[in-house]
Every structure is written in structure tokens, then in C-alpha cells.
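Supplementary Methods, section 5.1.

A reviewer requested that the exact input to the structure prediction be made available. We therefore reproduce it here, unchanged from the version used in the analyses.
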Amino acid sequence: MNSISFVEKQFTKTPVDFKEQFGAYNGATFGLRPTLKQSNYYRPHNKFDYADHLYFCGSSTHPGAGVPIVMQSAKLAVEELIKDDQTNA
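The structure derived from this sequence is encoded cell-by-cell as follows.
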């Protein structure tokens, strides 16, 4: 039995599709390249160093990719926001 016979609809996505449909930089589906200088602590931090009140979360920011890790990234960004809000109050 050929499993392909069960496929009802098939489509292909290219980097061009990701760039046009999702605004992904250069059509990158997974964000930053997984090099040592773009891994773990070296990813963009959750609080921007050069502007006030600008925070980031997601798979291309610290700590990294994967749904549980992206949720941790969101938590870190919110913690930075709350800390700044309390400092500026």
C-alpha cells in the first residue's frame, strides 16, 4: 500500500512564499542561523539595549526556538517590561 495515495491535497512552500505571506526576512522559516554566535545567550536579548521600552520575544530571540522556549522568551520579555515599569513609576 502506497501512503501517497491517501494524500488529498499537496502544496509546496518556498522561501519566497514565507517572505511574501509572513514577512519573514529573506524567507527564513526558522529565524537566525544556528551558529555559535547566534545561539543561547548570543541571540538578541528580550530587552533592546539602545532604546527604552522596546522588548522582543520569539524563536529568534533569547533563549531560542521551540514552543516551550518561545513561551519562556515571552515570560522574560514581560519580566523586563514589569521591571522597567516599576522603576519608572
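Residues 32-89 form one domain. These observations are discussed further in the main text.
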